[in-house]
Structure formats: structure tokens, C-alpha cells
Design goal:
alpha/beta; D-Maltodextrin-Binding Protein, domain 2; 2 domains; 5-stranded mixed beta sheet; 42% helix; lipoprotein; SBP_3_CS
Amino acid sequence: MKKLAIFLVAAMLLILSACGTQQSNQVENETKSSDSEFGLVKEGSLTFAMTGQYPPLNFKKDGKLTGFDVEIGTEIAKRMGLEANPVTNPWETIIQGLKANKYDAIIGSMTATAERDKQIDFTEPYYLSGAQIFVANDNTEIQSKEDLQGKTIGVIQASTWKDMAETLTSPDMVKGYPVDVNALQDLSLGRLDAVITDKIVGVSAQNEKGLDIKPIGDLLNEDRVSIGIAEGNTELANKINEALQSMIDDGTYEEISMKWFNTNIMEK
């Protein structure tokens, strides 16, 4: 009788052990299947690239990558149940790196253009930028682009913004600068009536350098800054879009944006 009881206990233990192993293998296989489904380059992680040289969007501080892009990518990875693995790559080869499977995504302030879309796919935009008019904080005369006729406008030399400015005022009233910040500083000192530059560049200068300026009117053109994904990886694109939308819906996106820009850069 004792032998029979011992045999039955041993048999039950073997069955339970087999069930446990089967369940463990099932969970492991599901995880691997999920990683394989996304085509991740590093199991359990979302590896995303940027230059690391574009503050405050992405840059290195004390040897560690930080900035708006990094925080957005980290939160997306978290909501996908993955570890965040931000990496750097030179801008001129960043698309080639994605196509070569060096990383899963580009979260580096890349505008989705028709030319780039021929090589890779893009998610929904994670912020909107474009050409923006800036004026001094105390300027109440200029409210929109229609008010720029006859005004002095500062722009970067040989830029598309220079062409825009010349259509809004006379060409002799457009002043070229080597960099945006110089024009924005002159604007805050009252040497210009307005500046046309990238929205994010202007907002960053306003916050970081304490310039007494403000954006006015709608964007003169719109850049949809999106996350680059390897062509055809629709499953990963869909999951990133879901994570991004949930961040927008629960206010997390706005918190991150306010931290870095003191405004919601998803809004026009």
C-alpha cells in the first residue's frame, strides 16, 4: 500500500512538473514570438536611433543620452512592455542604419517626407513643426503673416525661409543671418520686426536663452516629425502608434513636452 502511495505521489509530481515546464515554455515562446513579430534587433528592447547632437531634442549630458526624443522613446518602449535602448548614429547614414537592421526605429526628430518615405515607413507624427513667425513679446501690431508687409524680417541666409520672407515683405527688408539664434537675439533687442525660423528652434531659444519673443499666427508650412520604421514592419508601427496615442490621451505626452519646451509641440 505504501509503495502504491509513493508511486502515485511521484506520478503526480511528474505531471505537475511537466505542466509547469509546458506553461513556462509557452510564455517564453509567446515572448519570443512577440519579439520576432516586431523584428526587434535586441530581444526585449526597443532600440531607437538619433544623432545625440540636437538639444533639447536629443543630446548627451554627463555621457548619457537625454532630451525630448529620448523621453518620448523611453515612454513608448515602456508602454510596449520593452526596455528602452537609445543609440546614436550620424544623421547622414541614419536611414541606412535602419535599413541595415542596426536599430528598430529612428526617434531623432526626422520629418516624414515623400523622398524618405520611398526608403522607410513612418508612424503618425509625434510632434509638429515648420516655419513659424516670431515677434517681440510687446509687439501687438503683428498678429499674422498679412501684417509683415513693409516689415524687417530676419532669416537664415540661403534658406527656404528667406524665400518665404521675400513674398511677405519686400526683398530689401529681409536680413540674412548665419544662424537662427543671432536673428532671434536681434529680434528681442528690437533690431527686427519679426523672424521666420523653425518653430522648435524658436521655442527652444525662447526658453533656454530667456529671449523676450513669442510665436504668432499659424505655421507657414508644416513638418510632420515622425518615427521611422523599417519598410513593411506594420506591426511595430501600429504598436508604436498605439503607445503614442495612449500617451496623448492620458496627458503624459503634454507633461514631457511642457518639461522641455513649456508648450505642447503636438499642437500647431
